[in-house]
Automatic annotation (TrEMBL):
Keywords: Membrane, Transmembrane, Transmembrane helix
KW Transmembrane helix (keyword) present: yes
Residue segments, region Disordered: 37-71
Protein name as it appears in the record: Uncharacterized protein
Top-level taxon: Bacteria
Basic and acidic residues composition-biased segments: 39-62
Transmembrane segments: 15-33
């Protein structure tokens, strides 16, 4: 009886791996296709927002304003 339960558990883990190996590449392909057609303005907006987040985190970590910060 114990061996039967272990086999069922192994089968479910194998199924999860199989499903994961199908879903992950599909999600990656979707992300690549979705981001491929961004305009220059969208790319600039993303870059600016990313830099702002990094600067805010640096200010939070150091407790001091960074050179070039507007107050």
């Amino acid at each position: 009886m114990q061996q039967h339960d272990n086999r069922e558990e192994t089968m479910s883990i194998e199924w999860l791996w199989g499903i994961g190996l199908l879903v992950l590449p599909a999600a990656m392909a979707y992300a690549v296709m979705r981001n491929r057609n961004r305009t220059a303005a969208e790319k600039q907006r993303t870059d600016t927002a990313t830099k702002e987040v990094y600067r805010a985190q640096e200010r939070e970590d150091t407790g001091q304003p960074l050179p070039g910060d507007r107050t």
